[in-house]
Specification:
mainly alpha
Amino acid sequence: MFRYIIRRLLQFIPVFFGATFLIFAMVFAVPGDPIQALAGDKPVPPQVLAVLNDRYNLEDPLLLQYGKYIGVVPQDPTARQTAAGEPSDGFAGVIQGEFGFSFSQRPVSDIMATAIPKTAKLGAMAFLFEIILGISAGVLAGLRKGSFADNFVLVSTLAVVAIPVFVLGYAGQLIFGVQLGWAPVNAAKAGFGELILPAIVLGALSLAYIARLTRTSLNENLRADYVKTATAKGLPRTRVIGRHTLRNSLIPVITFLGIDLGALMGGAIITEGIFNIPGIGRAVFQGILQSDGPVVVGITTFLVLLFMISNLFVDLMYAWLDPRIRYE
């Protein structure tokens, strides 16, 4: 197991550099001057433009810009500062824990420190919501195939998949917020009570997929030979299902959840916009509107790290769910 973890951590290196370079290239290789785009129709003095181009390395080749952003290429200490406001020692990049500065001169790490806790709270609530209700609905439908409960789960999850997230969000606001008054329409403070409705909206689509995936996987395992053998030996049905069938059925569900954990953090742009939540989704959206490349790249770099860690956790969960799985 230890050797497997070390090998996976080493695999993170090319994945991290490859993914972050693609993100960096898609943001900064776009034609146009981001400084002029930030200024709008107002002309930028040549002196100011020269200073900002030097500070953000905009005149360097793309590979050199990326190397300075990551922190493997030294930068001019007089042009860059650390997040603490001190001049850098030449290296100030992601590897050193620095995500650069936005075009408004605010450290990207400060923007992330303000936005991530709100999105993390929203994502955690949506994650728990989809795990509890999704797996429960899938198990209920799988054990009672062809019953009213099974048909209800299939129809309701199909309806959720068919409805776009923004329609579901606005409908939830209108019904539960405006008409019934059960939930606040604006969740700007991101309190626990304010995030219940946004978390349901954010996790609804994943809940539908989890319920259907659990149902299908459980149905397949119930027909497996090892289940028939365990039943023939006289084991109680609850033990056969709980100890053997359900654990094997959860392997594809855990795989989906590992991917979905990062998707909840990065895919909250629409939900945060509808409910006015100042999270990372809204920060990325504002960064795109303002052509603020450092903010977009910094937050997406954090999401890349989150995806890699969640995938490693999923792989380790396989061995716990199925003792036949061993890592060499």
